[in-house]
Amino acid sequence: MANSLVDPFGRAIEYVRLSVTDRCDLRCVYCLPKGYKDFAEPDTWLDFDEIERVISVFGRLGVNRIRITGGEPLVRHNISHLVNRLSALEGISDLSLSTNAVQLNKQAAALKDAGIQRINVSLDTLKPERFKAITSGHLDKVLNGLQVARRAGFSPIKINMVVMKDINDDEIEDMIEFCIAEGHTLRFIETMPVGNTGSKATDRYYSLAKAKERLEQKYTLLPSSLSGGGPARYYQIGGTDLRVGFITPMSQHFCETCNRVRLSADGMLYLCLGQNDMVDLRTPLRSGIDNDGLEQLIMAAIARKPERHEFNTQPGHVVRFMSQTGG
Ligand code: SAM
User: Fold this and answer.
1) CA–CA separation, 196 vs 104, rounded Å?
2) 285 lines ligand 1 (CB under 6 A)
3) Distances (CA, A) of 205 to 60, 84, 201, 277, 322
4) What is the pLDDT of residues 72-115, one digit of tens each?
5) CA-to-CA distance for 20 and 50, rounded, in angstroms?
6) For residue 159, which of 170, 145, 137, 175 has the smallest C-alpha distance?
7) Residue 98 CA: which ligand 1 atom is closest?
8) HEC string for 177-231
9) Which of 94, 115, 53, 124 is nearest to 259 (CA)?
């Protein structure tokens, strides 16, 4: 399908990250503060009919990839039912999900049956005590969720590790060995200053350029490519099947190839992860806008997509939490 969503910088938008809730059953230190309660109210969340309508219009405009995220998407009631509906939409050929895996043991099979093709799982440490300190949760649930997901047919699973100075930077080699043994793909991510985690994120920042140099002492890193259209730069670890991706929003941004926008649970269309620009789709949806009107609104939004984030020059500029837009 022809893509009608090309922004002023010539970037075709073919990918929507769809946040289905801003709530989460973990409290990762870089994402949601402990005790945080200021969540959106469920009646402001788009319901499944509204989500289906918005995504079908994106599909008509040329978007073909949807990633379901959150908050934690598995805490949204009946999420596989939504997946089922989205997977039936014309134009949507790639449906994936990002999760912390805490509830994958119960939901992996239903998600696979409903049409999720690929999953990404956040995992920053393999040490139970450290996992508790970073997320307030239990590592065994995540490891179990990963096993169940693999048995349900998700393969390879992508592991996302946010690398933080003096918190888990000593585990990058361990995570590589774990992913080799388990057959997962691994992606390292730099901490971004979003929400009120801004200044702390700067303190915890660990450059992935440094991590790569460190890994090159121990492994052979062969440049590799992996389909998915995301921002990771991939390498294969010599002598193994493991692919390792580096996502470097801070040390080497990739805004010039940005192909995505983000829809929050409460129906706001965010045009850049690192900027505050957004367009309210919920109010027009609830005021009876027709599909042509929705198309016009989305095209006008894309025409306002910022050129790039300013995490380095303006840390703390984005005050919303990552759980609102789903990373
Ligand atoms: N709960 C799901 C998960 O764990 O994947 C989806 C939402 S979560 C916000 C998406 C991703 O954003 C996770 O991999 C998380 O580690 C990452 N993330 C959250 N805050 C971040 C930050 N300040 N810097 C870098 N990555 C962050």
Assistant:
1) 29
2) no
3) 40, 39, 6, 25, 16
4) 999 999 999 999 999 999 999 999 999 999 999 999 999 999 99
5) 11
6) 175
7) 5
8) HHHHHHCCEEEEEECCCCHHHHHHHHHHECCHHHHHHHHHHHCCEEEECCCCCCC
9) 94
Cβ atoms 6, 16 nearer than 8 A: no
Range 277-281 average pLDDT: 96
Dihedral Cα 45, 48, 50, 51, nearest 10 deg: 90
Question: Mean pLDDT across the chain, nearest whole number?
Answer: 94
* CATH 3.20.20.70, domain 15-325, yes or no: yes
Q: Is the CB of 107 under 6 A from ligand 1?
A: no
- Distance in Å from the first CA to the final CA of the chain: 27
Which value, to the nearest 10 degrees, does the dihedral of the CA atoms of residues 24, 27, 31, 36 take?
80
Is the distance from the beta carbon of residue 99 to the nearest atom of ligand 1 less than 6 Å? yes
pTM of the predicted model, to two decimals?
A: 0.96
Ligand 1 atom, smallest distance to 120 CA: 5
Could you tell me where the beta strands, DSSP code E, fall in the chain? 15-19, 65-69, 94-99, 118-122, 158-163, 185-190, 221-224, 233-237, 243-247, 260-263, 268-270, 278-280
Ligand 1 mean position to 120 CA, how many Å?
10
Tell the residue nearest (CA) to atom 20 of ligand 1.
Answer: 31
| Distance of alpha carbon 26 from alpha carbon 40, whole angstroms | 17
Task: Kindly state if the Cβ of 135 falls inside 6 Å of ligand 1.
Answer: no
Residue 109 burial (10 A CB sphere; 0-12, 13-18, 19+): middle
State residue 198's pLDDT score.
Answer: 52
Range of weakest confidence among 4-13, 29-38, 240-249 = 29-38
Q: Which of 97, 189, 262 to mutate to test the pocket of ligand 1 (most atoms within 8 A of CB)?
A: 189
Kindly give the number of the ligand 1 atom that is closest to the alpha carbon of 192: 24
For residue 313, the model assigns a pLDDT of 80
